[in-house]
Every structure is written in C-alpha cells, then in structure tokens.
Write the structure tokens for this entry.
Amino acid sequence: MANDHVAIDGPTSSGKTTNAQLLAAQSGHLYLDTGAMYRSVAYLALKNGVDLDNEAGLVAMLRHHTIAIVPDASTTAGYRVNIDGRYTGERLFDPDVAAAVSTVAARPAIRTELVERQRAIAAQGPVVMAGRDIGTVVLPDARFKFFLTASLDERARRRHAEFQARGIDVSLDEVRAQLAERDRLDSTRAISPLRAAADAVTIDSTDMKPAEVVARMRAVMEAARA
Ligand code: DC
C-alpha cells in the first residue's frame, strides 16, 4: 500500500464538503477542500480587478498573495481560508465568487499551480481531498476513490438552504440554474473535466443523510483493508 489517501469528487452541493469533513474527523486524515483554492483565486481576481480571461495576469496575481487553508471544526465548512493572513469568513461562498470560479478553474495555468500545491499537501500525510479531479488527476494513485452525486433538484435545495441561512436572497430557480450552468462548465471544460475515475465508487446521496454516506464510505474502506 503506497498511501492512505481518500479522493472524493463530485458536482457542487453533492455533499462532498460535509462528508469529506466527517470522514476525515473519524479517520484522523487531514481534510482538504480543493474548491476553496479555486474560490480563493476567483475572489482575489474580483478584488484586484484582474480580468478572468487574463490567465497570465491571474498567475502573476497569485505570487502577491498567500492562501492558507487551516482545519477548523468550528466553521460550517470544517476549515478557514486565510488570504494574506486574514480570515475570509463566508465571503468565498458568495454568489459573485460562485459565478466567477468556473471560469478561473478552466485556466490550465491556474490548475497546474493549484494541483502542485494540493500534491505538496498530500505528500505530508494521509488526506481526505475533495474536488472535481482528485481521483483522476491530482491523486490518481489514491488508495480510496469516491464519486458523490445527488439530483440537481436536491443539490439546488441544499445550496438554497445555505444561502437562506446566511440571509442571501436568491430564488430556488436561480440557484438551480446557476448549479446547472456550473455543472455544464465543469464537466465540459477541456482540462480536467468533472468525471468519475474508472476505479471510483459512486454514491448517490440524494436520499441519504451525511452519516449514512460516511458509513458507506467507511464500509468500502474497511472491506479493502481486510
Ligand atoms: O467544490 P466547490 O463548489 O467549492 O468548487 C468551486 C469551483 O472550483 C467549481 O466551479 C469547480 C472548481 N473546482 C475544480 O475545478 N477542481 C477542483 N479540484 C475543485 C473545484
């Protein structure tokens, strides 16, 4: 066995964050949500007024900022993102960042830069890493690979509830349309599109509670270890 990494991929609001966080807490792995890195780049681009199509400008911008993802179980996401040493709070989950992130994530130079950072973190010890391309590109040799899905309606309902809890006023229809558009962009982009690795176990969480999803994952992992 070369490693004990767990790769979890899937579309937006498929439950990756919640389940990856729970699984990591139970297994003692480090939890890394790679979406936070792409969101950080999108946020910095908006903040600095860098054109989302200016790939070289985006990469140059990254050299002037530090992005640190620090595990913190007291936050909803299970981590805090500090940019230039300052906690970003819920800002990375705002609708304007969500609208910009797919464009940023489709830039090859940005992906090369972030994938390198993700692999460097995995080199330090066992991780539960969540994203879109973890099982296919970032950690193709991960010992365990899961692909989480849920129906578009259920994912829209979950994301809408999150926005409502934060007092952000968007309709369920708008949220559903934005998710569908992000699914389309994420799965049709030329580089590292969202797809399940051939050796991933797919779990449809539409009618499952997080505890059930994690129990399923742990059963798969224990069977493989036996
Ligand atoms: O998981 P999330 O919704 O926080 O991801 C935000 C965006 O980043 C999403 O549009 C897809 C992109 N992403 C990616 O392309 N590759 C990853 N490994 C993680 C996220």
Summary: The domain at 6-220 is CATH 3.40.50.300 (Rossmann fold). Residues 39 and 92 are 6 Å apart (CA to CA). The longest strand covers residues 144-149.
